[in-house]
Each structure stands twice: as structure tokens, then as C-alpha cells.
């Protein structure tokens, strides 16, 4: 097997990994680059591989840094299946439509300028038609279901605990007569006990791991506290006569906030007046979440039963879809919580709300998402005194708060727990989806505590993955004898793969009967011990 890191290498955005296994060329994710100018430019250039040569895509989740270049892939000739979960399919639809709309209007704006300068005009990266075509290629798969993605190559999706529908992926490449090779892609790893979201799954044994490292260098504040921290900020800001502005990713984070606010209101901690979601995308995403209440975690399902509706539908919540309604919000001087996107303050309606509220000391801005280097959000978190918004200088007088507990990404300790949860320590780990500083810190800790082989791949780097003899390492030492739980687990995983293949090949009834009888014999043996 061969793996090339075409994105999210030493940066957080642009997740895109090309796995070549035998004759199959599979992409895991195809995300948009976000952040610095140089990164953004990568979105415009051609792919470093031929999209027509890609057989299939597995999409871990709908966030734009994982899905945002799928329409470009289709525009340049990809026509294979895109496998993902049901909720991701629904969310992808609105994410890509929104992204296409942004691409087209961004290029229109640039072209007006270029026409004046008599420069050649640009083409959008993709159009709404490309986004629609990408969505028609999606095929859904359930968590835990093993499916074929190419000859001798099977995949399984597992809950990643990051947001609705978000998955980790494991793949097994088992050509006849050769030792099978297994690889896991973490996707974005969530935080245990996150509201709404089913917890991250323990993955089966693999040889190679490609894992995210967004918060690889930091521990986080206590999760439990986050709603109370938010309630405190809201109360204090209202008492001063200001507004609370919350930049939030429209899909995932807004719903997390709505759930938290609902709980605070339900507990009598907050007054429901004037909570506003100013983002058509967030409004559509919230509806999709509410169509998948069955995918929420147990706690959220219980709360839904108590309030008798989807827990994201707050009574008196104001949702503004039109531009006119959004502009009306600029007249509100106090007592409003305005949730708007984009989450890193780079585009969209949030910029208007910041322009109208940042200069007012009585207001608060609450950061609840990851802020990439080079974004307006990051400059605010880093304490900028003046920022430029729409070509205008704006003084930063409002209080800037960050509540890290809202992160949907595992912190350093939780990433360590995720690695430790493999039944057999992986042979090698590649860290992706993180800034270099975070990656170095996590790599160091994994090497020191677990003695594993950790790499930080560069953009477009290719690595050859040789079949692995699975080592057993405990506390950094290789053990001469494998403990029985690992051996049993391995044997079981191989058995499961063999049975999957048996069924797919359409084995005759007597073979199936013989296999079932043999399995029953094994079961009796285990029971007899
Ligand atoms: Zn994500
Ligand atoms: Zn991500």
C-alpha cells in the first residue's frame, strides 16, 4: 500500500489522503484549504493527482475542511462513489451548496477588480452544478458495516464523536496469499461526553494510523463548565447593556450552542429573549440535525423527550435568513446573543456583527471554535487592538472570551487515550490536521509514553506501507510474548474479514453450513473452559 498526504499536512485544513492499494486508488476526504493566502491558493490550482484516476472517496464528515473540494474533484472528472454516513450525506448537501455560492460570489468580486485592472478573469473553483453532481455520487453506509471499496479492499466507518455523522475509517487490504494490511484514518476525533454526539468508538487493531492533532499540544478546561461560563458572560454583558456575539461554524457548533442555551433556559439560568441565529446555513443544518434525533446520544434523546421536541428548537429563537433581516440586527444595541458564521470570522455575516459591536466596550465576543493562524478570529484571540473589516479599521474595545470547552476536538490527553484504546499498538502513526507546534508536542508524548513510531508527513509526501508484523509494546517495551487478549482479538478480526469475503463470494449453502458448524464447535470449546 502507498499513502500520499495531499492535505492537512502540517496544517489543519485541506484533509485529503490518497491510498493506493493494489489497483485501487482511494481518497479519504477532499477538503478545502483555509487560513493563509498561500494555503487558499492551493484551492485554485489543479489537483496534484488526476481526479479521473480515483476510484472512490470515503468522506469522514461534512465539515468543509474535509469535503469542500469534492465538487472540484467532480468538475475535473471524478465519477466514482463517495461513501459516507446518512447524516453526513444530508449535511453535505447544504455545505457544498453554500460553499459553491461563496466560490462564485468571491470570483465575481475578484473579477470586477481584475476587469478594471485589465487582468485575465478567473473561473470559480466550482459552481452549484458541480456541488449538485458531487452529492449525486454519495452512497451511505452505516457505522460498523464492512463494505467493499475495491478488489481486496474493504472499509468500515466508526463513530468519531466529533459531530453528527462524523466517522473514523478503517481499511483492510487483503490480496490473496499476502498478509493483510490494515490502516485507520481518525477523521476529526471528538470529545467524550459531548452533548448530542455519540462517543468516539474504540477502533480495531491496525498497522498504520493517520490521526488528527489539532489540539495535540494542550489540555482543555473542564468540559462540564462551558455552558456555565457562557451563561456568566451573557449575564454580565447584558448587565453592562451590550450584546454577545458568537462566531460559530454553522454546522455542528451552532447546534451545540443551541442545545446548551436550551438547557440553560430550561434550568432557569437564562432568559430566552433575543437569541438569534443569523445564518441560513446554520438554520438548514439545524433542521437536518432535528431530522436525525435518533443519532443523538442518550442524554440528548432524554432531553428531547422532556421538552417534547427536538432539543435544538428553542422557543422564541429568532432565525434570520434574508439579508434584510440580518441588517435589521445591527439596530439592536443590547440584550442580544447573536450567533453567526463563519466560525473563524473570515467571511459571511459575522463580519457585519463584529463591525457593529467590536468597538463597544459593553459588548462581548465569545470564541467557541478553533481559530486557524492568519484568520481574523485568531487575531482577536491573540489580543489585536485594531482589526480591518471590509476595508475599515475597527478598534477592539469589546471583551474577547474564548471558551475552549466548546471544542469538538479531543485535547492532548484525549488524543493519547484514543491511541491507547487500540487493542494492539499500531506499528506506525502519521500525525495530520494540526499546526506543527501541536504535532511536535503530541509526537513527543506518544513516543515517550508509548514507544510508538510517529511521523509528521509533509504536504504531498508519499509513504510506502509494508505489511507489518504487529508488535506488542507495553510501556515502551516490546514484549516477547503477545498477551492472549491481543492474539485473540487479532484472530477474531481476521475471522470476521474471512467470513465477510465468504458471503460476498456467494459460497454454496453446504460450505456456509460447514463454516457455521465449525464456529459452533469453537463456541462450545470456549464455553467448556
Ligand atoms: Zn471537523
Ligand atoms: Zn477538520
Describe, in short, the structure shown.
With 529 residues, the chain is an alpha/beta fold. It contains 16 helices and 24 strands. The protein has three domains: 279 residues, Ribonuclease Z/Hydroxyacylglutathione hydrolase-like (Metallo-beta-lactamase, Chain A); 184 residues, Rossmann fold; 45 residues.
Structure in words:
The protein has 529 residues and is of the alpha/beta class. It has three domains: 2-218 and 408-469, Ribonuclease Z/Hydroxyacylglutathione hydrolase-like (Metallo-beta-lactamase, Chain A, 4-Layer Sandwich), CATH 3.60.15; 223-406, Rossmann fold (3-Layer(aba) Sandwich); 484-528. Helix content is 36%, strand content 18%. It has 16 helices and 24 strands. It has helices at residues 37-44, 64-67, 70-75, 86-116, 128-136, 226-240, 253-266, 280-290, 298-307, 323-328, 350-357, 376-381, 412-420, 436-450, 484-504, 509-528, and strands at 2-5, 17-21, 24-28, 56-58, 82-84, 138-140, 146-150, 153-159, 167-173, 181-185, 208-212, 244-247, 275-278, 318-319, 337-340, 364-367, 386-389, 392-395, 399-402, 428-432, 453-455, 462-464, 473-474, 477-478. The chain has a seven-stranded mixed sheet with strand order 6-5-4-3-2-1-22. A seven-stranded mixed sheet has the order 7-8-9-10-11-20-21, covered by helices on one side. Strand 23 (473-474) and strand 24 (477-478) form a beta hairpin. Helix 4 runs antiparallel to helix 5 (128-136), helix 4 (86-116) runs antiparallel to helix 8 and helix 13 (412-420) crosses helix 14 (436-450). The radius of gyration is 24 Å and the shape is globular. It starts with a strand and ends with a helix. One zinc ion (ZN) is lined by residues 63, 65-66, 188, 433.
Amino acid at each position: 500500500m502507498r499513502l500520499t498526504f495531499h492535505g492537512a499536512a502540517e496544517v489543519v485544513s485541506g484533509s485529503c489522503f490518497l491510498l493506493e492499494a493494489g489497483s485501487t486508488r482511494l481518497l479519504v476526504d477532499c477538503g478545502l484549504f483555509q487560513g493563509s493566502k498561500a494555503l487558499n491558493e492551493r484551492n485554485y490550482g489543479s489537483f496534484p493527482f488526476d481526479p479521473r484516476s480515483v476510484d472512490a472517496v470515503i468522506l469522514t464528515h461534512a465539515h468543509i475542511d474535509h469535503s469542500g473540494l469534492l465538487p472540484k474533484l467532480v468538475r475535473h472528472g471524478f465519477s466514482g462513489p463517495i461513501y459516507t454516513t446518512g447524516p453526513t450525506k444530508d449535511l453535505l448537501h447544504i455545505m457544498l451548496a453554500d460553499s459553491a455560492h461563496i466560490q462564485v460570489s468571491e470570483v465575481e468580486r475578484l473579477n470586477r477588480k481584475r476587469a478594471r485592472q485589465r487582468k485575465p478573469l478567473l473561473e470559480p473553483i466550482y459552481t452549484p452544478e458541480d456541488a449538485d453532481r458531487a452529492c449525486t455520487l454519495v452512497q451511505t453506509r452505516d457505522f460498523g458495516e464492512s463494505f467493499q471499496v475495491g478488489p481486496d479492499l474493504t472499509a468500515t466507518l466508526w463513530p468519531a464523536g466529533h459531530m453528527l455523522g462524523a466517522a473514523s475509517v478503517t481499511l483492510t487490504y487483503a490480496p490473496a496469499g499476502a498478509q493483510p494490511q490494515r490502516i485507520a484514518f481518525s477523521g476529526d476525533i471528538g470529545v467524550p461526553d459531548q452533548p448530542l454526539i455519540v462517543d468516539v468508538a474504540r477502533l480495531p487493531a491496525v498497522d498504520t494510523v493517520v490521526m488528527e492533532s489539532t489540539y495535540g499540544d494542550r489540555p482543555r478546561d473542564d468540559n462540564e463548565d462551558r455552558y456555565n461560563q457562557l451563561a456568566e458572560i451573557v449575564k454580565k454583558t447584558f448587565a453592562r447593556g451590550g450584546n454577545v456575539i458568537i462566531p460559530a461554524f454553522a454546522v455542528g457548533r451552532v447546534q451545540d450552542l443551541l442545545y446548551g442555551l436550551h438547557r440553560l433556559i430550561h434550568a432557569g439560568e437564562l432568559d430566552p429573549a433575543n437569541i438569534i441565529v443569523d445564518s441560513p446555513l446554520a438554520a438548514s443544518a439545524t433542521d437536518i440535525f432535528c431530522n436525525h434525533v435518533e443519532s443523538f446520544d442518550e442524554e440528548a434523546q432524554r432531553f428531547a423527550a422532556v421538552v417534547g421536541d427536538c432539543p435544538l428548537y428553542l422557543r422564541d429563537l429568532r432565525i434570520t435568513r434574508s439579508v434584510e433581516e440580518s441588517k435589521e440586527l445591527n439596530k439592536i444595541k443590547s440584550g442580544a446573543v447573536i450567533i453567526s458564521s463563519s466560525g473563524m470570522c473570515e467571511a459571511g455575516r459575522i463580519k457585519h456583527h463584529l463591525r457593529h459591536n467590536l468597538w463597544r466596550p459593553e459588548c462581548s465576543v465569545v470564541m467557541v471554535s478553533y481559530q486557524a493562524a492568519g484568520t481574523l478570529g485568531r487575531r482577536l484571540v491573540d489580543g489585536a487592538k485594531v482589526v480591518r473589516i471590509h476595508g475599515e479599521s475597527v478598534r477592539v474595545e469589546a471583551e474577547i472570551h474564548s471558551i475552549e470547552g466548546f471544542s469538538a476536538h479531543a485535547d492532548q490527553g484525549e488524543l493519547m487515550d484514543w491511541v491507547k484504546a487500540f487493542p494492539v499498538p499500531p506499528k506506525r502513526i502519521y500525525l495530520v490536521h494540526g499546526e506543527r507546534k501541536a504535532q511536535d508536542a503530541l509526537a513527543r508524548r506518544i513516543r515517550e509514553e508509548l514507544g510508538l513510531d510517529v511521523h509528521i508527513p509533509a504536504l504531498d509526501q508519499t509513504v510506502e506501507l509494508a505489511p507489518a508484523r504487529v508488535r506488542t509494546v507495553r510501556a515502551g517495551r516490546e514484549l516477547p510474548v503477545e498477551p492472549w487478549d491481543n492474539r485473540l482479538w487479532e484472530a477474531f478480526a481476521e475471522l470476521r474479514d474471512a467470513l465477510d469475503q465468504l458471503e460476498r463470494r456467494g459460497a454454496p449453502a453446504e460450505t456456509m453450513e460447514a463454516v457455521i458448524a465449525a464456529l459452533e464447535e469453537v463456541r462450545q470449546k470456549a464455553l467448556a473452559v
